[in-house]
Amino acid sequence: MKKILLLEDDTLLSETLGLFLEREGYEVDLALNRTEAEILSYENRYDLYLFDINLPEGSGLKFLEYLRGADDTTDTIFITALTDMESIAKGFDLGAIDYIKKPFHPQELLIRLRAKFKSSIISLKNIEFDPDAEVLRKDGIVIDIGNVQYRVFVKLLQNQGSVVNKVDLYTELEYPSDNALRVALTKIKQRLGIEIKNIRGKGYIIEKV
Fold first, then answer.
1. Which of 10, 145, 170, 177 has the least CB density, counted as fewest CB within 10 Å?
2. What are the φ/ψ torsions at residue 73 (nearest 5 degrees)?
3. How far apart are CA 23 and CA 46, in angstroms?
4. Which domains, and CATH codes, for the chain?
5. 144: how many CB neighbours lie within 10 A of its CB?
6. Looking at the DSSP assignment, which residues form a beta bridge with residue 100?
7. Please, which residues bridge with residue 135 across strands?
8. Distances, alpha carbon 91 to alpha carbons 40, 51, 82, 127, 137, in Å
9. What tens digit of pLDDT does each residue of 40-76 get?
10. 184: buried, middle or exposed (CB in 10 Å: 19+, 13-18, 0-12)?
11. Which pLDDT score is estimated for 81?
12. For residues 85 and 171, what is the distance between their CA atoms, to the nearest angstrom?
């Protein structure tokens, strides 16, 4: 699961973004000021920083400069109401990978995060599996198919194009049996609208698209 530090002094925006990103499968720590962010960055390792530029205790740019001076190379996206090119250029000079301008829709931020973490995502038609966040999405929306069905589907998806022996799929079931496996597969097909082929005497396969 990807871990994000969000530094934003607007309490409502901070909590709204935090809840939104957590629903999308990210782990998020919230900091309302530089002091809180500094402590969190020291105590934890993050996959990404989301920093507001305008802060009561000084610029988010200055804070990133401080972190870079401490050999912290964590990728950073700035949140800003500023439009002057000097501030934007400064952010990129410090190693920021992107910025997003206030006001913005949370989906816009999500698109940028997906672009950053897209390398590990496995796709099947309109289904996406993010192994880092351990999240399934259908048509871009997080979907819950149940723990057993999730484990079975992920094993098939990660072996897309290859036959998975039913004995290997049994390990993902709470009470392994032919009937339990058939039930799980039926639920997966109904919930996700996909085809899972039974190769008699061998196992099951999801064909590559």
1. 177
2. -105, 20
3. 18
4. 3-119 (3.40.50.2300), 122-205 (1.10.10.10)
5. 10
6. 79
7. 130
8. 21, 10, 12, 35, 32
9. 999 999 999 999 988 887 788 999 999 999 999 999 9
10. buried
11. 80
12. 55
* The token pair that represents 119 in the structure block: 């390398």
The CA distance from 178 to 101, in Å, is 53
187's enclosing H/E stretch is helix 178-192
pLDDT at position 134 is 81
Q: What is the pLDDT of residue 56?
A: 81
What mean pLDDT is reported for the chain? 89
CA distance 18 to 188: 30
Q: Residue 209: what pLDDT?
A: 66
Under-50 pLDDT residues of the chain: none
Copy the structure tokens of residue 59. Answer: 């610029």
Share of the chain above pLDDT 70, in %: 97
Map tokens 């079931």 to a residue.
173
Count Cβ atoms below 10 Å from residue 26 Cβ, excluding itself.
23
Phi, psi values for residue 49, rounded to 5°? -105, 135
Structure tokens given for 164: 């998975």
At residue 29, the 3 state secondary structure works out as strand
